[in-house]
Specification:
Length: about 250
C-alpha cells in the first residue's frame, strides 16, 4: 500500500532537586529536532493531539525539513483530517522528491479522503520508483486496496508481486490468502500461507492466518495445533488473543 516505558512519578523532594540541579534546562526551549522526536514518541503512544502540536512547532521553526512535514501528515492522518494530511505529505515530497516512503503515506491519505484512484496512482508511482527501498510494501498496499474493492484478480496479482520482492513479508501472504479465500480458493490460500510460514516462522500474524484458514477448510486438528502454538508464543498479545478466541469455536 504499522513497548512503552512505565511512567514514574517524582516525589516532591526529587522535583525540587531536579529543578535545583538543572535550572538552565528548565528555561531552554526545545529545538526543532527535539520537538520532532517528542512528537514521534507521542504518536507511537497514541497521544495524537500532543504529537500534532509538537510537529506543528517543529515545522514552523524549520519549514524546509521534509521529515517534520511527514510527521505532521501522519498526525493529521491519525485524526482523519485528510485534507491537511495530504497537504503535509505533498509538502514533504516537494521538499524531497526522493522521499519515496511518503508516497505510501500520501496514498493512504488520498484513499481515506475517498480519492481511491489518486491513491492507487501514488502507490504505483512508489512501487515503480527505482529508489524505493521497500517496493514490497507499496505492492502489498496496492493489493489491499484492490482487495477492499473486491477486485480479487488484481489483488492476487499485487500480493504475489509483493512476495516476489520479499519472500519473508508476512502481510503479503496474509493478504494473498484473503484474496484467494474470497475467490473460493481456500486450499490454494492454505498452500500459500504454509509457504509463508516456512519463510517467516516467527511471524505470528501469518501463523494465526494459517490456523484460521485450516478452520475454514474443516481441518480442525491442524487448526488447533497451529492456533495453540500462537497462544503459547503470544499469550496476552493481539495474535494470541485472536487465536484463543478461534480455538473456542473449534468443535470438541
Amino acid at each position: 500500500m504499522m513497548n512503552r516505558a512505565p511512567c514514574r512519578r517524582l516525589t516532591p523532594l526529587a522535583v525540587v532537586l531536579a529543578l535545583v540541579a538543572v535550572p538552565v534546562l528548565a528555561q531552554t526551549a526545545p529545538d526543532p529536532e527535539t520537538r520532532f522526536s517528542t512528537g514521534v514518541m507521542h504518536l507511537k503512544d497514541g497521544r495524537v493531539d500532543l504529537a500534532l502540536e509538537e510537529f506543528k512547532k517543529a515545522a514552523r521553526e524549520d519549514p524546509k525539513n521534509p521529515y517534520f512535514q511527514k510527521g505532521l501528515g501522519l498526525a493529521y492522518a491519525a485524526k482523519r483530517q485528510w485534507k491537511d494530511a495530504i497537504a503535509a505529505f505533498r509538502k514533504a515530497l516537494e521538499l524531497n522528491p526522493f522521499y519515496v516512503d511518503v508516497r505510501n503515506d500520501l496514498a493512504y491519505a488520498l484513499i481515506g479522503s475517498g480519492d481511491r484512484e489518486a491513491g492507487k496512482k501514488e502507490l504505483l508511482a512508489a512501487f515503480s520508483d527505482p529508489t524505493n527501498p521497500t517496493p514490497e510494501i507499496s505492492a502489498r498496499n496496492l493489493g489491499q486496496v484492490y482487495l477492499e474493492e473486491k477486485n480479487y484478480p488484481e489483488a492476487v496479482n499485487w500480493f504475489r508481486t509483493s512476495i516476489t520482492r520479499n519472500k519473508a513479508f508476512g502481510e503479503a501472504y496474509v493478504g494473498l490468502s484473503d484474496a484467494l479465500v474470497a475467490s473460493g480458493k481456500v486450499d490454494e490460500a492454505i498452500a500459500q500461507l504454509e509457504l509463508g510460514v516456512k519463510e517467516a516462522p516467527n511471524d505470528l500474524g501469518l501463523a494465526l492466518a494459517l490456523g484460521q484458514d485450516y478452520f475454514k477448510a474443516g481441518r480442525f486438528a491442524d487448526a488447533r495445533a497451529r492456533l495453540e502454538e500462537v497462544v503459547k508464543k503470544d499469550p496476552v498479545g493481539p495474535a494470541g488473543r485472536a487465536a484463543a478466541e478461534q480455538i473456542q469455536a473449534l468443535p470438541r
